[in-house]
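Researcher: First entry.
Model:
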Amino acid sequence: MKTVRRLFAATMVTLLAVLGLMPAAAQAAPATRYDGVLPNGATWIADVPANWNGTLLLYSHGYNPTPNNPPVNSPDPAVAEALLARGYALAGSSYSRPGWVADTAAQDGLDTLQAVTEIIGRPRRAIALGTSFGGMVTGQLAERGGRRLDGAVATCGLMGGGIDLHNYQLDGSHAIAQLLLAGQQVKLVEFTGPAEAAATAERMIAALDQAQASPAGRARTALIAALYQEPAWVPGQPKPAPGDIDAQVVGQYQNLRAILPFILLGRADMERSAGGNPTSNKGVNYWRQLAESERLPQVAQLYQRAGADLRADLNLLTRTANVTADPAAYRWMTRTSTLSGRLDMPVLTMHTTDDGLVPVQHAEEYADDVRASGSAALLRQAYTDHAGHCAFTTAELVAAVVTVDKRIETGRWDGLADPRRLQALAGSLGLGPAAFVGFRPPEFLGDR
């Protein structure tokens, strides 16, 4: 348990840093700070630079389950400084409570916008900007903020929605339980609280560690990682070569091991908010899941080398999938934690190519939903060649904001979100490196 707690604590420190929830550094750009409290108890802050350009950025921060629930108005201090220097005003709230607060987060943002507007006046343009969980919130704002917001930038967002997020994570957990903890009682849903979720994570990590000692265990790890949609590129390490499947499966294992405690503790918190388990795997065909992941050749080769039976394992997973959703929890998550794709404004999403916590496949699912709604002309998607969750550079984030600001001004995309154009813009800002690339995400596995 201590190992899992230490790993979770380290993971949280990293995530809080990248999601803009660590204490802010002093701002170099002159700005006036405003703050207040919303009727539901959420707090908000706003920074308005002396050279305000008339555009206000409404920031939605990432998932924060810790009791500390501060208001946040930018992804991180360096991005805040760069945006303020360019004349952007920044506003953001704490949300009404920590954790999976999808029922109020979007309204908290709109209420913050109203409170700030009453003080500084109506902005010339207002753009929603969000990170991770806040990316999903930004997606909600893009569907309901029509007259109050003009555009949106959703970064590293849970754009597949909360139900589908936890669906594919359930698939991966089911595979660990059946393939690496066979014959043991492993609770996958309806956790009684964080302690039970942490204990389950500890057992799963131990099983993954043990599996690395044999070719069959590594083959099964590759199958499990495919269902979790884990990338092979590990932050701080070289990217594995396209044909090096041994290095790829090591990277997938390392990424999964790092984020598994956060996934299960996040599920416990989500279930508490929803009042039960909103996810299911009953009736899922795991042959189809593996094929759609685009990893069937890799997994099949590893199974063949190990002399293991992939057909038997996939049949086992399909036969034993029996988790069903609690109807009330499913309805709550549908109402609070999903995106319809019906856009009220231009939206730019941005994702790293190799995100271990919120896989880039979320962008593929979101694009499908937006096309189905008839809003495709309003959406553009950008990708940066990095490993890690929300591992964007300052130049990339500022370039995304400037691009959407320009799209609102002109009323047309006109290639503004082309990766070469984004890269050139980022390079012209004098804010350091950028790595925009052309990219096609694989198929998202969480939609049932």
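Researcher: Second entry.
Model:
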Amino acid sequence: MKKRLFIFIALLLGVGIQIVNAQTKSNAQVGLRLGLPLGGTVRYFFDDANAVEGIAGVYSGTFTVTGLYERHFDLSALTTEGFAWFIGGGAHMGTRDTDGNVKFIAGIDGIGGIDYTFPTLPLNLSLDWKPAIHFNTSSDLTDFAVSVRYTFGR
């Protein structure tokens, strides 16, 4: 399972890099999500406020792939350049190992957090809360994480 997860995350990051190279705008980010779930993250901005994010991660015998839409709100005028907050939602699917039985899971997700993109470095940091409601097993409402991403085109 861990070997499959590593291969999947490597492929996800590779595809993300290929997508970024094919874009004319430099508004994509690829990195690691440290928390629940632990894994890889790819985020693409359509403009300054609208983004989509993909997360592939593992936690407590669970593997999920999540797709999210995020709306970002710039706080640069109130704080410092590159600081923002965001909110959004999406869906996930994956597998969960419960007492030796692997079952398919799917559900909906919310996300909210704060985000900082360094003005002089190609680096983005974010802290978020991502509650997940599963349709066929217990929900995960206390999922917090820090993401560290490389920002292309900076």
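Model: Note on the second entry: The beta strands are 28-35, 38-45, 50-59, 62-74, 83-98, 101-117, 123-129, 132-134, 144-151.
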